[in-house]
Amino acid sequence: MNVSVTAGIQTVKLLIDGEWVQSQASEWRDIVNPATQQVLAKVPFATQAEVDAAVAAAQKAYVGWRNTPVGARMRIMLKFQALIREHSKRIAQTLSAEQGKTQADAEGDIFRGLEVVEHACSIGSLQMGEFVENVAGGVDTYTLRQPIGVCAGITPFNFPAMIPLWMFPMAIVCGNTFVLKPSEQDPLSTVQLVELALEAGVPPGVLNVVHGGKDVVDALCTHADIKAISFVGSTAVGTHVYNLAGQHGKRVQAMMGAKNHAVVLPDANREQTLNALVGAAFGAAGQRCMATSVAVLVGAAKQWLPELKALAQKLKVNAGSEPGTDVGPLISRQAKQRVLGLIDSGVKEGAILELDGREVNVPGFEHGNFVGPTLFSGVTTDMQIYTQEIFGPVLVVLTVDTLDEAIALVNRNPFGNGTGLFTQSGAAARKFQSEIDVGQVGINIPIPVPVPFFSFTGSRGSKLGDLGPYGKQVVQFYTQTKTVTARWFDDDSVNDGVNTTINLR
């Protein structure tokens, strides 16, 4: 991996114009194993000059890359996906060490990104324009889907493989060049994926990597040569990125915070539903923007609470590297303290703490950022544990009497990332999917993230910008449509004379 060693500590490099370079930054951050607090490496907060150099390299490379035949771009993606498959277990080990996920979940993180790379291999048909012959006398009209230039991506800590793979493969296969800023908390696995992209044949300057915090983000959002910004992360940062980049004339897609509800009807398959709720709420320690963090039990389904609690109690909390682990650590000590504070607020505001994960003990990993599965009942919609995205292994339970009440409750929440309904009634499912005001709906599916043939379609407070990542929508985002209206004349064509009207003849 492209790191250097200084005073016994690895330092992560920047990728600029095809070369891995040591940053001249004055500010560095430790990359810490969240289960052990071991410092794995140090990551630089790139200087303004380094960001400018990365963008300049992308701008220079764009001139040739945009004219690279689509088949050549596609073949690079074919090789890239093969390399990811070959090295996925190795990268997953790095991902687990720096992020805390279990090995299986880390491999899943990589696989869901790999699916997008595989979809990028279809760019020959995805980027097709349209054509209509003879729209007027001898006039044809057609559209071209052309790249837009230098694009940038800002990715979060919770999916250091999947989210970068949502972004740069689709951007560059469309003919753009790219500057990627991974999360400063766990960039090592992202860097390994970028190394594979270079090995697959991505030319110098087409893909660049800079590291850093707010200053680097702001530099990307305001740089005159960057045409589009893709962001996944918190609502606060996403709103800032959307507003700042938008003010500087850039396209922006910002996938942000969430409060995802699972509505459970009493006719649902009991065992399957309970398993789904527990897995979606506590998997990845709840650090998923699509995690199920609210269960809405309808009518007699409220009687399932004891079984829900019993199932959650069986989950094993341990380091992600340990076999049999269900719930790993949170990403940082700060994240743990925030989650503990929100649990405390739930108790103070009168919710019933059915299962308390605050004092979980993990032998051999006493310094880890662990919070065990935590379950609240008796929750109301004005409590902080309901209004805020906890981003930890905490599930809150609300009860209502009818499906209509459940739909109204979900629709009142300002977020709109994902929701699910558990039922065996087709009529109820059809009503729910029609009336719910949430971008992604699961029917007996707890985390309804669509496959890459479709697009990620969060809505309302969970998304800014009208085009989502991957699928057909992201091809629209990373290209511009040029419409050509053409007429050709034979040498012996009749001259119609001067036409001063707007009509085509």
From TrEMBL:
One GO BP: thymine catabolic process
Organism name: Pseudomonas eucalypticola
Pfam families the UniProt entry points to: Aldedh
PROSITE patterns the record matches: ALDEHYDE_DEHYDR_CYS
The family this protein is said to belong to: Belongs to the aldehyde dehydrogenase family.
Gene3D superfamilies in UniProt: Aldehyde Dehydrogenase, Chain A, domain 1 (3.40.605.10), Aldehyde Dehydrogenase, Chain A, domain 2 (3.40.309.10)
InterPro entries: Ald_DH/histidinol_DH (IPR016161), Ald_DH_C (IPR016163), Ald_DH_CS_CYS (IPR016160), Ald_DH_N (IPR016162), Aldehyde_DH_dom (IPR015590), MeMal-semiAld_DH (IPR010061)
Ranges for domain Aldehyde dehydrogenase: 20-484
Highest taxon listed in the record's lineage: Bacteria
Keyword NAD carried by entry: yes
Transmembrane stretches, start-end: none
SUPFAM superfamilies cross-referenced by the UniProt entry: ALDH-like (SSF53720)
UniProt KW keywords: NAD, Oxidoreductase
NCBIfam families referenced in this protein's UniProt entry, alphabetically: MMSDH
Descriptive protein name: methylmalonate-semialdehyde dehydrogenase (CoA acylating)
Lineage summary: Bacteria, Pseudomonadati, Pseudomonadota, Gammaproteobacteria, Pseudomonadales
Its EC number(s): 1.2.1.27
GO molecular function: methylmalonate-semialdehyde dehydrogenase (acylating, NAD) activity
